[in-house]
Design goal:
Pathway: Carbohydrate degradation
CATH topology: TIM Barrel
Helix content: 40-55%
Oligomer: single chain
CATH class: Alpha Beta
Cofactor: Zn(2+)
Keywords: Lyase, Metal-binding, Zinc
Protein name: Fructose-bisphosphate aldolase
Shape: globular
Radius of gyration: 18 Å
CATH architecture: Alpha-Beta Barrel
Order of helices and strands: HEHEHHEHEHEEEHEHEHEHH
Bound molecules: 1,3-dihydroxyacetonephosphate
Strand content: 15-25%
């Protein structure tokens, strides 16, 4: 199965009432783990890089080449979209050029008119190359790549206008937060989600950012109301770190003939696979490839 655009499977997810994982990668091992989980579950998947992760990995072109080559060498049969997470206008254009099949232009920190204008331009350039576009209205709380969002409920009228630009899927703030949820978090704002879904119509896939740490019932309810893509990053970071720490604390990194990074990273990879598979089950996308 070739690498495909996000719209290729997110529209089906919206129509059939399930969601696809938007899973963040940071390196070779995470990418392999996400692909292994998606393949094991026979689920479509979006592998996404933040701008910072792509810079860390060696640039956008390298990310495209890495993911495409792994899809090929691992014999992946499920549809995979290569997605830019929270991109600036410039990053979105670069990713469209180098072969990402899905880009998020995040202009949520800009005045709304500016966000809308740039979104229209990104849509035009992306669609000319068959690339799907996600845009955001109402900033998502917490921190993402050094950008701190206050966490808002997206303005319903702005959501409608943003969908009018021709974007393929909409990220809208509904009380969700990136990173670890605080103890006093009030949960997702379902009334608000319903208002947005009613206003933008039944065929627009909605994106839930901050998917780590939201209880399963809340995720399932959000999906039943129109969420078709759920982003997960923090949970992978936590389980990867925990598994790696346990390996080191057990003294296993000293075994054998010196230090072997492949052995050191293996428990973290297994932890991400387990997490990703569990989320795919929650999202209902297992067997949908
Ligand atoms: P988490 O921090 O909850 O994993 O959210 C990731 C995300 O939304 C990336 O855009």
């Amino acid at each position: 199965m070739p690498v495909v655009s996000g719209a290729e499977f997110l529209n089906a997810a919206r129509q059939s009432g399930y969601a696809v994982g938007g899973f963040n990668t940071n390196n070779l091992e995470w990418t392999q783990a996400i692909l292994r989980a998606a393949e094991a579950k026979k689920a479509p998947v979006l592998i996404q890089t933040s701008m910072g992760a792509a810079k860390y990995m060696g640039g956008y072109k390298l990310c495209v080449d890495l993911i495409t080559d792994l899809v090929d060498s691992m014999g992946i049969t499920v549809p995979v979209a290569i997605h830019l997470d929270h991109g600036s206008y410039e990053a979105a254009l670069e990713c469209i050029e180098v072969g990402y099949t899905s880009v998020m232009f995040d202009g949520s920190h800009l005045p709304f008119e500016e966000n809308l204008k740039l979104a229209k331009d990104v849509v035009e350039k992306a669609h000319a190359k068959g690339v799907s576009v996600e845009c955001e209205v109402g900033s998502i709380g917490g921190e993402e790549d050094g950008i701190i969002g206050a966490g808002e409920l997206a303005d319903v009228n702005e959501c409608v206008q943003m969908v009018g630009t021709g974007i393929d899927y909409l990220a809208c703030g509904i009380g969700n937060i990136h990173g670890v949820y605080p103890e006093n978090w009030k949960g997702l704002a379902f009334d608000h989600l319903q208002e947005i879904a009613n206003a933008v119509g039944n065929d627009v896939p909605l994106v839930l950012h901050g998917g780590s740490g939201i209880p399963q019932e809340q995720i399932e309810k959000a999906i039943s109301m129109g969420v078709s893509k759920v982003n997960v990053n923090t949970e992978f970071q936590l389980s990867f770190a925990k598994a790696t720490r346990a390996y080191i604390e057990a003294g296993k990194d000293q075994e054998g003939k010196g230090f072997d990074p492949r052995k050191l990273l293996a428990p973290g990879v297994e932890a991400i696979i387990k997490d990703a598979e569990e989320h795919i089950d929650w999202f209902g996308s297992a067997g949908k490839a």
